[in-house]
Amino acid sequence: MNSTPGLRIGVVGAGAMGADHIARITTRVGGARVSAIIEPDALRAAAAAALAPGASRFGTIEEALDAGAADAILIATPGPLHESILRPVLQARLPVLCEKPLTPDPESALRVVEAEQAAGERLIQVGFMRRFDPQYRQLRTLIAAGTAGELLMLHLVHRNPSESPGYAQEMLITDSVVHELDMVPWLTGGRIRSIEVRYGKRNSLANESLREPILVLIELDTGVLADVEMSVNVQFGYQVAAEAVFERGVARLDPHDGLQLRQDGGLRVAEHRSFTTRFSDAYDLEVQAWVDAAGRGTIAGPSAWDGYQAALSCAAGVRALTVAGPVHLDLPETPVLYASAVSPETP
Ligand code: ISE
Description:
Blueprint: E1 7-12, H1 16-27, E2 32-38, H2 42-49, E3 56-58, H3 61-66, E4 72-75, H4 82-91, E5 96-99, H5 106-119, E6 124-127, H6 134-145, E7 151-159, H7 171-188, E8 192-199, E9 214-220, E10 225-231, E11 239-246, E12 250-253, E13 260-263, E14 266-269, H8 275-278, H9 280-295, H10 304-320, E15 327-328
Helix pairs in contact: 4-5, 5-10, 7-10
């Protein structure tokens, strides 16, 4: 793969997610190569460079842009750094795939949307990779087709094996449930009307400032109710699962896609250990679609506006962590720039 030069991608951030994307672009994505690694930490940059022979190294996005080292940018830094990286990229009018969240709060997300509107074109695709997962896409098609009747409820499960370092209470929403806050409207075609959080019995394995698991109730303007069990210390593996309740049927997305082995009087099922393996196909499809769309001068997935909506939903979800009852949301109307689908394949 990658024998042709193709789209030159600058990857900003060479932590776990950045390194994962660099390996993906180098070995599994066609029509693109990593031309620049933008990472101030010398050790990380060197480790990442070993994955992408020929890539130049830069300490800042400005240096990479000044050198004309990339045709497109993939941002894989922590969310609080996104706005300051997105601004010069938008000014340079380069296509950008920005890992979730677009930014950590609605105010900064709106500033990014306004900067993109000033540029007059959709340059930003947000990395909500679940929209590219074949199983979620099948479920979305089933919901839209209505062959099992109207969708009534969704039961969702989102379990991490253990907290990442520095994981704080509000990250239950902004880092983890943000996926469901993007996915549920996309999956069902409804808009979020309210969010409520209830607490389960506290997991004693959580760090002492963290109270989890939580149950998040997402109410849509269509009447559909989605509940999400969010746990971040289940120890045994990484799981996402879904059960969709229709008028005349129930559809399930199982957390396992690996081998089931019956042996020695028992059943052994392999668990995923991380979202990078559970969603590896989705990430491949997402990055490939973005690369292909960049070649056509467009994006192929969730837009900056979707990122802003998710930030608004997260802000309500964070409030719901501390208040009793539902927190209501009044999402703004979609501006003209974001009103139409970008291309027929847009998920
Ligand atoms: C992590 O940051 C991700 O984005 C994963 O997809 C999610 O499942 C996990 O809960 C987050 O911590």
